[in-house]
Design a protein that fits this description.
single chain, alpha/beta, Rossmann fold, 2 domains, five-stranded mixed β-sheet
Length: 441
Amino acid sequence: MPRNTGSDRGDSRRTFLRVAGAAGAVALAGCAGGGGGGSGDGDAETDASGGGSTETDAGGTATDAGSEGADITLGALYPLTGPYGGLAQLMRQGNNLAVAQINESGGINGSEVEIVGEDTQADPQTGNQKARKLVEDDDADVLFGAISSAVGAAVAGYAAEVNVPYYPVVAADQITGENCRRTTFRYTTRATQMATSGAPWAVDRFGTNFWIHNADYLWGNSVATAWEREARNAGEVNVVGNTTSQLGASDFSSYISEIAASDAEWVLTGLNGGDAVNFLKQAQSYGLKNNTTIVSPVNSFQFIRRAAGEAAIGTFASIRYFEGFDSEVNRQFVSDFTDMHGSAPDAFAHDGWTNVQMYALAAEQAGSTDTDAIIDAQPGIEFEAPMGSTRYRECDHQAVHPVSIGEIVEPADYEWPSMDVLQTVSSEDAILPCSDVGCEF
């Protein structure tokens, strides 16, 4: 049954999303098919979507939550094959939960929503082709996802050309910096937000002598640049060394030996996924953690904590999302996600869920899925997300929200290492002013 239209649309949606509600939780249990949607352990070979997903070959289609003949189509870009396969499954799970919740509460302006996914294979050219297919063949009203910043950049360009809203799950600064687009809205914390909150804290806590090691690609280089700049802004520092490795590298022993032999008091690692896990395990094996503190913008990812295990404990990380974060919205999100998928959400599930919810709020407020109407409506919406209140800035369409940093510690509520939140920086203090980001629409 369609919900009321008019000025109370946004308020009713916010009320539902803030607590989800007992009736919605009961309904979602039915949508989840008993909650056995997979382990959610990041295995790219496992169909863990819980949303009625099907996959064909390595480059095939993944048709997700929704129903045939739905009025609004969301197009999702997942690197299901390649180095981000496990993260893609988690993002997909978050998308599917959001769609199920939105449809259960009456859809968007009374219209049912479906989500159609495509495998980008973490390749920019393939990602661009799949984005084109979603828009031109599947009539997608909006695009989501990517994970790979290079893919996200390619898709952002295409979305701007065809005037389709795009909500990327990527962190490279350029996406809402010098390469910003009026059609792009990014909730995912950009590299500089992590650096602004984390670098001064690390210098103050661990010392002024540090090493930077990052993967040599768009995101990794963004991390290195941002953390060095923000560390220098905090005072007199000494970058003892700066090394890079190829994306997908498996042997970090030579870099670890260099760092261990240096005067570095701490090392910043701009590594993600399997690269981050391999570095942590080898750092543990070679004893790097005994004398040098490891700091990362992403090692708080559940995927990394689970895979690295003991090797992650005692290291420090910025927190894009933490399943144990103490907020009412997060507790409800974790409960709903676990009911549907059988495991706690991670950062990519959180970003996937939040993106869809924020788009739904904009479409409801606009009373339309028209792109220009979405662009006008989205910056004016304040959303209570699991990690705190958030909104998109008018100047660059980057979301502002609090950013935390903490220590990876022994397991608590789950079998994998937990997080001890040590500092939370306010929304405005964790982001550069509009005048400094280089965005011009």
